[in-house]
Each structure stands twice: as C-alpha cells, then as structure tokens.
C-alpha cells in the first residue's frame, strides 16, 4: 500500500460530499465576475470616463490599498478598470474558497473521529490531503475558466481576460498550498482556518503597503504576484508561473510535514487556557461578550477601515461627479445640495447597513446557543430567560453603536486629513450615530423572531436584505413610497445632507425597543427547543 | 402530560422523589426521561397533570428553584473556545456560587485538565466538566441526566463515590441512567418509564419481589421433573449443571427439590436491574412483534 492508495476514491467522496458547496463557491465567484464586467460598461461608457477613474485611483492611497497599483494606468482601457475593481476581491474569494474547502476535508476531519475511521481502511497517509488538494485545485481551475469566459462574454479582450481570470485562480491555488501546510502545523481545524486566514491577511497587507509605497513589498505577497501579471496591459505570464511553483512546493511541504506528526495532533500544541473564569465572564452579559469578542473586534476594525476609504474620497466627490455623471446614478439617493454632504450621508447609510450584518448575527447568536444545546447549562442555573437574552441584546446594541461610531470616525479622520478640516471629525461621527436606531430595528426584528418563531429566525437576514435593497435600489427601481417606508433608515434624517432632528430618531428607537420587548415576552412563553 | 403536536411524549408519567433519597430514573432511549428533566427545569411547559419541584412551580419559579438545584445535561455541549475551568466557574456562578475547595478536589479526583479548551475535550471530559460544576455546588437537589455516559470505569467509581457522599450530606439526587449496576449500587428507589408512562416504581426490594431469582446448581442425581414445579421457568441442563429462574414465592419448593436430588453446589442471585429492565423492554418488543405479525 503506497502513501497515496485510495486517493481517487476519496476524491470522488469529497466531490460527492461537497458538491453543493463547490457549486455555490464556483458559480457565485463567476457570476459576480460577469456582473461586474457588464456593469462597468454602463458606468464608464467612454474613454473620458475611464480616464477620470484612472485619475481618481492613481493617487488615492486608500483606494490603491484596496484595489492595486494600477498596472496599465498610463494608457488606460476598460480592462484595467475591471482589473482594479475585481482582481483583489477575486483573489481573496478564491483564497477563502481554498481555505474553507481544504480545511473541511483535511484538518477538520481529524478533529472528529472520522479521519481515523477513514485512515483505518485501505487509505494511504497522504491520500486525504492529496484528494482534497486535487478537488480544491480543480475548483480553482474551473472558477478561473468560468471567469475567463465571463469576461470574454462581457466584451473584454480575450488575452487579458485569460490573464485576469488566471490570476484569480492562481491566488486560490497558492492558498490551497498555504492551507495544506497550516493543516499540518495547526492543532485543530479552527486553528488551521485561523492560520491560513492570517496568511491571507498578511498577503493583502503586504501588497497594499507595497502598492502604496511602490517599494517592492508586493513581491512578498501571492496576491501581488497574481496582480503582476498585468492583465489587459502587456501581460507578464511568468508571475502566474511563480504562483503555481509556490503552490506546488507548499503542497509538497505539507506531505513532508505529514510524515513528522501523529494523526490528530499538530506541530504546535494548542496553548493552555486559563484554569478558571475571570469574574466578568461569570454572568450572562459577560459570557455573551466573551463569546463574540473576536468577531466584534473584527467588525469594528473592518468598519473603521471601510469608513477611512469612504472618507478619503470626500475631497474628490465634486470633481468625480462633474467628470462622470454616470457615477451620480450609482449614488441614487443624492439629492440637490452639496455633493460632498450627500456623498457622506450615503456613506453613512452603507456603513449602517454593513453594521446590520453584525446586529442580526449577534442577536441570532441566542438561537444558535439554543440549537447547539448549550443554553440548557445556562437556563438550568439561576438565570431567567430574559436575563440571558438581554445579555446578547446588550452586546448587539452596544457593539452596533460602537462599530457605527468607529465607521463614522474613520470617515471623519480620513476626510479631515484629505480636506485639512479636523473640525469635521465629530460631526461625521454624529452623522453616523444617527443611523444606529435604524440598525437596532434589525436587532428588535431578530429578537422578535427568536421569541416567537425560532425556527424561522433566519428570516431576520431577509429584513437586512430588504433594507439594502431599498437603500441602494429603491430609487432606481422606482418603488412606491409605502415600500420605501419599510426600511427604518428611510425615516431617519440623512445627516449631513439633512439636519438631525430628534422626533424620528426617538420614534425609530422606540420601534426597535418594542420589537425586542415583544420578542423577550415570546421567549418567556415558549418551550426551549430540544437539541 | 407533554405533547409535541399530536405526539404524546409523556402521558401517565408518575414520578415522586422523596427528599434525601437517591432516585433512579430508568427507561429506554426516547422514553421521555430527558423531556421530563426539561419540564422539571422549566425549560418546557407541561400540557396537563400536576407538577411540583421543591415546593414550587418549575415554570413560574424557575430562577428561584434553580438556586437550589444543579443539573447535568445528558448531552453536554460546551462553548468550544472556553476552557473547562472557565465553564465550571461560569455555570457555578450563574447558579449562585460554588465551593472552591470542593471544585479543586473534584477536578483532581476526576483527573480533569481545566486549562484545556472545550473543543479539545473528549466526550468523557466534557461530561466531567458538567459533573464538577454540579457537584462543587451546594445544591440540595442534583438532577443528573445519564451523567456517566462516556466516563471510564475508574471515573464511574469516582462518580459513585461522589453521589454517595452527596447522599450522606442529605442531598436529594434524581439520576437517570442506562448503567443499571450504578443505579443498583446508588439508588434507594427507582422509577421505570416506557413510552412516556411509568411502568414500575418502588424500592429495589419491592421490585425484586415481582421478579424471579436465578438459581444454578449441580446435583448427585439427574435433575428431573424440575420444570413441573410451580413457578419454575426456563430450565436448562448443561453437563450436570442445572439452572432455572424461579418466582420468589416458589423459591422454597424449588430448593427443597434440589436438596432431595443431592445438592453438591448451589448459587443463586437476585435479579439484576438488567433483568428487570429487559423484561419490560422485552414485552415492548414482543408487543411490537405481535403488531407486525397482525399486519
């Protein structure tokens, strides 16, 4: 029996087991690529519009950090705009696909007893990793092929389309290798995802710093290599070759590491934790915070950075809209008045809707605890259901408020820097905070569902989706007023384009509170679900 | 009574636990033991019947009652990124505090590493976390839902010791279990349920009265006509060794007959709870078989 015995059978098994996940990842990435490719034709219809885009992106550090160094900006075409818009996010998407899918079939299997069961049969030491890498590599190749076809179908030059799609697939392949190594080194599936994601974050930051500083740091990042193919701008194919070589070396390294460790253990043992609980954890609100601390921190940082990007655009708004009226339609909510204020107000709405994601997930965490059977331990102690639920509501409300404030601060600080107006920071934080009651309505809605219809509580996400739809497409779709009024954000003043006034803010807050109170009452009256 | 839609999960359940006793709560999987526990904890409402726990209403007075009890769920699900020690403190504190000396002693006796994160624990270790949290409290009622599932025999012995000590301290224990030897060793009284209905309840002695004793013997002369005796069942002869089951009321007659045959060795043992349990379970299987045949 060789170390690879059983690889083909495991390959078929992984495809069978993950067929839905694989299909969703591949189709979603390719579909987004196609949608983006099509839409750019409308937003940048002529060379002048392309030039204005290039002017904007060429010298804005925040945008360079997110998009890339702007290969081909000297003599721009719509292709380099597409690259700038989609490449980094495409690379991150395929990298995440590789990280999650590969971990799922390798290290995560070892955490359960399943890997031992599989390895007790006629399956070689390296077969599970080889099969998983094979499936994930194929998924990246298929994603790349579909993306290339999508770009070509969206009327971009063939060679550049292949280079762009190839760069997206190549980044995914490198991170398949990274994850294969992480799966050997880490002590659990969770730690594998953590390690590989940290590597992805480092790759993003290195190339962001390198692209802004133009100092070569980008050559330390796989995403930097993928971008350096210079799609639509005199392609350099060897950088994709570099990705493939590194991916292959990483996979070989993973095989080597696998011979050095026991199944189920890691290179690095999991560090010991505290032997007892700090006193603040020992109450429902402390526990709710402790369980969501990591994600809360991530959300706050993410929203702050997004705020910085928006704020850094503040100075360019006037010029941007003059040069490209098509962009004006993208910000459909812009009324008359000062374009900068209107842009800021729209930014605040966008940031609030993003915070809505946290608001919903933090509240639905309640139902997650119930579904996972952990709530029994809490509620069989001297803790009422309300006290338990209020702990989560408090984290949701405080977390939402803090992250919206952080987003506003990001906008304010960046705008203060680019416009030289430090006095704008606090007003912009205030403008962001005005949106908070609208987001809290989502907390109330989620609590209502958890209280009365726990099995349907995922419908709270539909509430967020509706608010996003109304916020961004309401005017374009020419929805009737009653439909627009469904979104609580519509009832709040769009500061700083409008002036703040207390009555709508108070009213929306009361609605959120009433929904949550009703949900708490419902929770008190129903059976806790059987695990 | 408890209904889930039209399904009657509990119907005709009669469970009475006296203060200070260790009460065994037995039943096959799906018979309603966990649902009963959850109703007693006020996590679920009952749809009919009378219910009182420590003199209160489990639904209405849940928080007040929970200060006086400690519960170990049958399927211990813990927060994967908290350590065992953190979870013990958390649950203990939420219940109203735990005895730190006893916490340390229990962690030591159960050989639990409290610095490990819950995701790294085996099923047995997760169970230990829940047990330490419950036993380190000074709750007057311990409600344990199959608490030893996943524990090795050594740890089972530690557990039994802890329960006996709790009993010595005057605490009340409601112990649902599949481990019949454990119930036999620990429990003063037991209640057996099947399909949500109490089928038998009483002290071990009372229940044994209803059952047969198993006798094995070797005799000088061949054991003839034993099966004709009243109350003797299932006679098996194997190379001079005869064994049979006999109703408790007819034990005397059966032993007399063996003596007449020239008794050389004799062993008898009272029915284990295993036998009790299997008999009730068997009937159920038989009934199910009959139904199938009729169809």
How many discrete structural domains of chain A? 2
Q: What percent of residues of chain B adopt helix (DSSP H or I)?
A: 25-40%
Strand order of the largest sheet of chain B: 4-5-6-3-7-8
> Per DSSP, what share of the residues of chain A sits in E-state strands of 2 or more residues?
under 5%
Largest interface: A-B, 35 and 47 residues
Question: What does the largest sheet of chain A look like?
Answer: none
How many strand units of chain B?
A: 12
Give the percentage of residues in beta strands of chain B. Answer: 15-25%
Helix-residue proportion of chain A: over 70%
Main β sheet profile of chain B: 6 strands, mixed
CATH architectural group of the largest domain in chain B: 3-Layer(aba) Sandwich
In short:
Chain A has helices at residues 7-17, 19-43, 47-58, 61-67, 78-105, 107-111, 114-119, 127-153, 158-185, 189-213, 222-227, 238-258, 284-312, 317-323, 325-330, 339-371, 375-379, 385-419, 425-434, 436-452, 459-473, 481-484, 502-525. Chain A has 531 residues and is mainly alpha-helical. Chain B folds into 2 domains: 2-207, P-loop containing nucleotide triphosphate hydrolases (Rossmann fold); 212-270, Alpha-Beta Plaits, CATH 3.30.70.
């Amino acid at each position: 029996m060789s170390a690879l015995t059983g690889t083909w059978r495991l390959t078929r098994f992984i495809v069978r087991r993950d067929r839905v996940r694989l299909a969703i990842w591949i189709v979603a990435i390719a579909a987004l690529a196609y949608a983006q490719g099509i839409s750019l034709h409308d937003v940048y219809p002529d060379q002048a519009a392309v030039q204005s885009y290039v002017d904007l992106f060429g010298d804005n550090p925040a945008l360079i950090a997110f998009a890339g160094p702007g290969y081909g900006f000297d003599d721009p075409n719509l292709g380099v705009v597409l690259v700038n818009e989609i490449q980094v996010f495409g690379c991150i998407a395929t990298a995440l696909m590789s990280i999650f899918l590969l971990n799922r079939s390798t290290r995560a299997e070892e955490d359960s007893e399943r890997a031992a069961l599989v390895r007790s049969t006629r399956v070689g030491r390296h077969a599970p990793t080889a099969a998983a890498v094979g499936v994930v590599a194929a998924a990246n190749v298929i994603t790349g092929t579909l993306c290339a076809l999508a770009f070509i179908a969206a009327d971009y030059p063939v060679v550049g389309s292949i280079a762009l799609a190839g760069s997206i697939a190549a980044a995914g392949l490198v991170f398949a290798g990274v994850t294969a190594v992480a799966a050997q080194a880490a002590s659990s599936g969770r730690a594998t995802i953590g390690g590989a994601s940290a590597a992805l974050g480092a790759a993003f930051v290195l190339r962001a710093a390198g692209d802004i500083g133009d100092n070569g740091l980008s050559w330390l990042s796989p995403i930097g290599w993928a971008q350096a193919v210079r799609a639509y701008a005199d392609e350099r194919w060897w950088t994709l070759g570099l990705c493939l070589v590194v991916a292959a070396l990483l996979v070989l390294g993973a095989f080597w590491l696998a011979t050095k460790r026991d199944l189920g253990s890691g290179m690095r043992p999991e560090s010991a934790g505290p032997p007892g609980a700090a006193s603040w954890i020992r109450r429902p609100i402390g526990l709710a915070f402790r369980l969501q601390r990591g994600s809360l921190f991530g959300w706050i940082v993410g929203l702050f950075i997004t705020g910085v990007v928006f704020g850094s655009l503040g100075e360019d708004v006037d010029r941007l809209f003059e040069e490209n009226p098509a962009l004006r339609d993208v910000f459909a909510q812009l009324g008359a008045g000062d374009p900068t204020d209107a842009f800021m107000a729209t930014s605040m709405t966008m940031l609030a809707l993003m915070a809505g994601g946290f608001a919903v997930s933090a509240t639905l965490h309640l139902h997650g605890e119930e579904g996972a059977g952990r709530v029994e331990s809490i509620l069989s102690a001297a803790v009422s259901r309300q006290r338990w639920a209020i702990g989560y509501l408090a984290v949701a409300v405080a977390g939402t408020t803090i992250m919206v404030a952080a987003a506003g601060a990001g906008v304010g600080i960046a705008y203060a820097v680019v416009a030289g107006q430090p006095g704008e920071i606090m007003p912009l934080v205030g403008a962001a905070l005005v949106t908070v009651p609208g987001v809290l309505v989502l907390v109330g809605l989620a609590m209502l569902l958890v209280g009365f219809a726990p099995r349907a509580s995922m419908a709270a996400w539909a509430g967020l989706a509706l608010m996003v739809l109304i916020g961004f497409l309401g005017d374009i779709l020419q929805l009737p007023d009653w439909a627009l009024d469904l979104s609580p954000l519509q009832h709040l003043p769009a500061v700083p384009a409008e002036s703040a006034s207390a009555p709508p803010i108070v009213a929306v807050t009361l609605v959120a509170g009433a929904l949550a109170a009703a949900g708490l009452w419902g929770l008190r009256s129903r059976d806790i679900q059987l695990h | 009574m408890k209904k889930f839609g039209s399904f009657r999960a509990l119907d005709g359940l009669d469970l009475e636990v006296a203060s200070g006793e260790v009460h065994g709560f037995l039943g096959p999987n799906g018979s309603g033991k966990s649902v009963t526990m959850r109703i007693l904890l006020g996590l679920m409402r009952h749809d009919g019947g009378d219910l009182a726990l420590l003199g209160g209403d489990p639904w209405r007075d849940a928080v007040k009652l929970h200060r006086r009890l400690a519960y170990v769920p049958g399927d211990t699900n813990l927060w994967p990124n908290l350590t065992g020690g953190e979870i013990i403190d958390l649950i203990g504190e939420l219940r109203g505090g735990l005895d730190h000396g006893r916490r340390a002693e229990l962690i030591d006796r159960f050989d639990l590493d409290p610095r490990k994160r819950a995701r790294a624990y085996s099923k047995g270790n997760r169970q230990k976390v829940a047990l330490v949290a419950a036993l380190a409290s000074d709750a007057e009622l311990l409600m344990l839902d199959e608490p030893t599932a996943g524990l090795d025999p050594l740890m089972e012995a530690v557990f039994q010791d802890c329960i006996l000590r709790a009993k010595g301290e005057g605490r009340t224990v409601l112990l649902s279990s599949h481990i019949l030897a454990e119930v036999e060793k620990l429990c003063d009284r037991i209640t057996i349920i099947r399909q949500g209905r109490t089928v038998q309840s009483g002290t071990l002695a009372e229940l044994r009265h209803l059952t047969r004793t198993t006798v094995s013997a070797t005799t000088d002369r061949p054991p003839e006509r034993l099966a004709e005796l009243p109350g003797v069942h299932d006679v098996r002869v194997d190379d001079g060794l005869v064994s049979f089951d006999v109703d408790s009321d007819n034990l005397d007659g059966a032993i007399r007959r063996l003596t007449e045959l020239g008794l050389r060795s004799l062993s008898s043992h009272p029915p284990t709870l295993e036998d009790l349990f299997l008999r009730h379970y068997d009937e159920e299987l038989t009934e199910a078989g009959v139904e199938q045949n009729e169809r």
